[in-house]
Amino acid sequence: MWGGRTGALPRVWGLWPTGVLGRRQRSCNAPSLAGSNSPQCWNCGGPGGPIRVDGFFCPQCRALQPPDPTRDHFSLMDCNRSFRVDTAKLQHRYQQLQRLVHPDFFSQRSQTEKDFSKKHSTLVNDAYKTLLTPLSRGLYLLKLHGVEISEGTDYEVDGQFLMEIMDINEKLAEAQSEAAMEEIESVVRDKQKELTDSVSRAFEQDDFEKAKEILTKMRYFSNIEEKIKLKKIPL
């Protein structure tokens, strides 16, 4: 996808006055965390402040700068720090950033910029994957608020819910037909949608303990979804 485009970087610079990063996404309007006190450019020694909103390149020599360690996934993807995310615009932002920082565009640049581009690209990939799905997005948002869910925790999960999970797992283990698998998959999908709507309301109300409880349940259903995928793979 990215190979054979070593001359793409100058064209990206030429697009900036009116191109894709010269405008903000309409639904994602969080300010950049890069400010006027940005460190000096490693290449020219000038102030390494941001060009427009993204702060990837030195405004003097246009050398790629190291990633900003204070920038969270929401800021990097230019989105509000919220559970509600427009995934279509998130994907568009991901594609924009990869056109700027993907290592294939830096094959003719300095080794320092090559290294920085790999780090930027990895961060962009991680941010995109984290914010794309409701469960990982919710867990990350909780973490930003200082709340984490340990692996294997039964936090606020009542016995009735655990019985429901066990029942679904038993049906999945016994399922022998495609129709039976689809029925289980439909039930799990509906449950996840219901829980996603509930956790969205919890975040809107800043009820992080409630969000933690719901996300714990979503994790159980996510595990079942993985089992369904594995069972669908022909041996």
Automatic annotation (TrEMBL):
Domain Co-chaperone HscB C-terminal oligomerisation: residue ranges: 158-229
Subcellular location: Cytoplasm; Mitochondrion
Main location, first listed in the record: cytoplasm
Keyword list, A-Z: Chaperone, Cytoplasm, Metal-binding, Mitochondrion
Highest rank taxon of the organism: Eukaryota
Annotated GO biological process: [2Fe-2S] cluster assembly; protein complex oligomerization
Residue span(s) of domain HscB tetracysteine metal binding motif: 39-65
InterPro entries: HscB (IPR004640), HscB_4_cys (IPR040682), HscB_C_sf (IPR036386), HscB_oligo_C (IPR009073), J_dom_sf (IPR036869)
GO molecular function: ATPase activator activity; metal ion binding; protein-folding chaperone binding
Pathway of action: Cofactor biosynthesis; iron-sulfur cluster biosynthesis
GO CC term (a single one): mitochondrion
Family: Belongs to the HscB family.
PANTHER family: IRON-SULFUR CLUSTER CO-CHAPERONE PROTEIN HSCB
Record function comment: Acts as a co-chaperone in iron-sulfur cluster assembly in the cytoplasm. Also mediates complex formation between components of the cytosolic iron-sulfur biogenesis pathway and the CIA targeting complex composed of CIAO1, DIPK1B/FAM69B and MMS19 by binding directly to the scaffold protein ISCU and to CIAO1. This facilitates iron-sulfur cluster insertion into a number of cytoplasmic and nuclear proteins including POLD1, ELP3, DPYD and PPAT. Acts as a co-chaperone in iron-sulfur cluster assembly in mitochondria. Required for incorporation of iron-sulfur clusters into SDHB, the iron-sulfur protein subunit of succinate dehydrogenase that is involved in complex II of the mitochondrial electron transport chain. Recruited to SDHB by interaction with SDHAF1 which first binds SDHB and then recruits the iron-sulfur transfer complex formed by HSC20, HSPA9 and ISCU through direct binding to HSC20. Plays an essential role in hematopoiesis.
Subunit structure of this chain's protein: Interacts with ISCU and HSPA9 to form an iron-sulfur transfer complex. Interacts with SDHAF1 (via the first LYR motif); the interaction recruits the iron-sulfur transfer complex composed of HSC20, HSPA9 and ISCU and mediates the incorporation of iron-sulfur clusters into SDHB which also interacts with HSC20. Interacts with the cytoplasmic form of ISCU and with CIA complex member CIAO1 (via LYR motif).
Name of this chain's protein: Iron-sulfur cluster co-chaperone protein HscB
Protein source organism: Molossus molossus
